[in-house]
């Protein structure tokens, strides 16, 4: 009895080709689209070198020197956090005139213009510059007692080599004023602001260093200041949180598989149509049969679980193999999560189908709207929404079926152990059980007010 | 008028589904429009920081206070998975650990102390947050050490640095002399509502309209109508006018919802142009629904098609993200989709993209082109029967 | 002695304002072909749905095989076969699969089921169409499939709810013969229809319903006996003079004389045949007439007499 009913239900499912075809087609199409549309988007928050224009209304040698040192991160073999992020230089500077710089800003070729202007007139002339000869004396003294040699040996473009190279020009610490012009706010602009600020502060430090050179000569003070200024020891040690793939783009793929799962609800809804006498003649006929309702429900559910699982398997296979979303050796668990998610989706449809006495069309509309809401809350359209929900209403994320599935994939991808993944699997089972149980209780003994 | 009346008789039975959709999507729009706040002056990017202080020293405390001035400090449990999740979902932009011995190492300038790392950070991506915090921390440490090298005690050095960090270069905004659509009546913030509109319109209009048309399209009633006195031309006319009126009603409800977000009647040319833009797109959605129905598919399939096209197009054309974030290759492909032109027009109107009013009309024209194409497609498909 | 198979007591079913079934009492005995006759919308299908426990009803009690019928009375349900008014088969399954699918909900054993399904297909004459999908079948054949799905499991009680709607005469006869055969094989049959000829032809006992109420009950003959007219004589002729009709009315056993649509209609009550007397009057009056024939009363006349309207509007 049971197996026979199930057998025919599966046959019917696969003969209703259009549903199966679209059920398979939609993750394939959307997955491909995501891959090519959003593959870049995951990198949107990743640092990329900020292009900027520099308009030198006043010559500033130190600016060139510091910026060159900073932005040629690739020339030093160390991964110096200060000169590059992820191997990318911090800035890409174009020295140009004002008209061109504005043109570039307008076109979006640069994110901002750094102006180097003469100091405001009211500010006093820097006394240090006037004591150039004294500095030269000092450098000479250092050269004589050999203490300069150790700075020269230092290959890391430190300040002393700058002194050595450029002191002859006589304006190694120019007195300039920096300002920044931007078109809009954003991370790039914030970086430009920081780097400009940093330059101003280094310019100040350089002055202080020179000042200390006058005061204490090449003694310990100068030594320390120089060390403090030019130290390129990484101050920040990076700790690893996970060995998994944390590309934020993946959130879309997780949600897509979750969406395939929850779309099982649309198949699940047909169970209502197949079993509730008020929704179809076939269901009325079945309701009159001697086969207990529980057996009918289970046969239907099992049949739909099976056929929907096949759709899920195809979707997961396509996403992992064709689109190369890598889950490593945990691929079998991805299938498990997807299939359980699909089972939950089908049960969800069965549950909604069991509520109330609405027509099939009305229920189908409600299911579709519910699906999209759940997907939205899980971050399918805008990932920030998921973050907001986790932050403010975490319980919602715990019980949202779509979020439960997509989170489980996230855990698979980033967690070292599988505790949290299995937790989600248990959650899926609990939710499924809830849907099936209450769906069944609602329809078990129902007589209808009208057919 | 019989078919027309029948249309609305069936439509009445779909009101409930329609309302469910409207409520859901308006609810979706509200947080969207409010989550993207716009800034008019230069505002430094504020980061969400998680900081774990293991040093519990004056130096570490004061560093945290300094960082808290510009950034938001997020409280998290000291649990790796919690930090991981917070960083993955970007609730936290940067997770910093100030290890034991920070103050000690910071305040000494001997080689041993100098070679010691001062901070630890949980790294996930090479994000802007990492770049900014690296610069900020290095700058901070450099300055503190500079002051110490000059002989200041740590506490004074910190005070000096804190003072100096308040200064910075002046930031000016470049204001173009060209006429653009920076219209205070149509801000980029509010434009998000219209930006998401294509997805919403397709989902709602297709899912409400298609089931009605499918019912009318079912073989028996259709044959009956075709055999009746009603001529095919009149039948088609009535179906089209019914669909058009229903579409306008749905669109109007969204415009009313938009007013709720807007806080009153729409103002200014740009805003009304955006309203017109959405109207054109509503009509495209309606003709799209009619087009799908002419392939005689089931309600479930209509639901899925609307999702594939609605979501796919929304992602490709920049309904959920600014078009500038999408790759050029995608945007080239997206040009064959109506939503691309819709979003482009909307961006020009809100000032997110450069362009003139002529460009906006151009986009409208292309959208109308899609409408005509779908219309022709529908007629061809139907006449083949 | 015959057992009661279905017993309906004081059944009331309301749809909002409309009372679809009103204080209905039925008792169907084992071995009967029980006819439920009435015009469209009189509550036949509602009554059936109540018996099958599909519909909730407002008042009354329903017993099947001596036990109260509930949605979970699976033991009772497994003895019932139902042939609903609408086509209740799956379009995605072919003829054989459909019968097997529904039969499978009653019969677990595969071998037995195969035999039953074959017998059912034989019985309705669909053997040549085993691989056909329902959509490919003509109206009559589809109806037969609908029947096969309801009877394959050899139920003790079979309910036919208007099984011949929209069926060609040939298929209809086949169906009616089949129902009689099933009854002969031991099944109790409930047959609802608004075609009085069918009910008259096969039913051993009939209940006539109108507006949810039972208005008459009995065998076909019993029902006909309840009305005054036992025979109606028709004579084709021009409109007669009033005197002629008056004269005829004075004849014994003539209850009514009227002229309708080119023929004289003479209603006669039981007893003797009046034809010769009538002929004599016509002869005497020298009235020209065409064909002359007489009709025995039908259930339609019964219905007409009780309700004042035709069974089929």
Count up the helices of chain B.
Answer: 16
The residue ranges of chain B in which pLDDT falls below 50 over 5 or more consecutive positions are 35-40
Approximate helicity band of chain B: 55-70%
Oligomeric organization of the protein chains:
heterotrimer
Number of domains of chain A: 2
* SSE run of chain B: HEHEHEHHEHHEHHHHHHHHH
Number of strands of chain A: 7
Label the overall shape of chain A. elongated
Largest pleated sheet of chain A: 4 strands, mixed
Would you mind describing this structure in some detail?
- The complex is a heterotrimer of chains A (451), B (385) and C (313).
- By secondary structure, chain A is an alpha/beta fold.
- Chain A has two domains: 2-42 and 248-443, no CATH class; 47-230, no CATH class.
- Chain A is built from 20 helices and seven strands.
- In chain A, α11 runs antiparallel to α14 (293-322).
- Residues 73-82, 128-132, 152-162 and 164-171 of chain A have low confidence and may be disordered.
- With 385 residues, chain B is mainly alpha-helical.
- Chain B has helices at residues 2-35, 58-70, 80-88, 102-107, 111-114, 128-149, 154-165, 188-195, 197-217, 219-227, 232-262, 269-293, 299-317, 328-334, 338-350, 357-384, and strands at 48-53, 72-73, 94-98, 119-123, 170-173.
- A four-stranded mixed beta sheet of chain B has the order 2-1-3-4, sandwiched between helices.
- In chain B, α8 (188-195) runs antiparallel to α15 (338-350).
- Chain C is α/β, with parallel strands linked by helices.
- Chain C has two domains: 4-224, P-loop containing nucleotide triphosphate hydrolases (Rossmann fold, 3-Layer(aba) Sandwich), CATH 3.40.50.300; 228-296, Alpha-Beta Plaits.
- In chain C, 34% of the residues lie in helices and 29% in strands.
- Chain C contains eleven helices and 14 strands.
- Chain C has helices at residues 44-51, 74-77, 95-103, 110-124, 139-151, 169-184, 196-202, 220-225, 242-249, 275-285, 299-307; strands spanning 4-15, 18-29, 33-37, 59-64, 67-68, 80-83, 157-161, 188-193, 205-210, 213-218, 229-236, 254-260, 263-269, 292-295.
- A six-stranded mixed beta sheet of chain C has the order 6-7-8-3-9-10, sandwiched between helices. Chain C has a four-stranded antiparallel beta sheet with strand order 2-1-4-5, covered by helices on one side. In chain C, strands 12-13-11-14 form a four-stranded antiparallel beta sheet.
- Chain C is elongated, with a radius of gyration of 24 Å.
- Chain C starts with a strand and ends in a 6-residue tail after the last helix.
- The chains are: A alpha/beta (451), B mainly alpha (385), C alpha/beta (313).
- Chains in contact: A-B, A-C.
- β7 (236-240) of chain A pairs parallel with β4 of chain B.
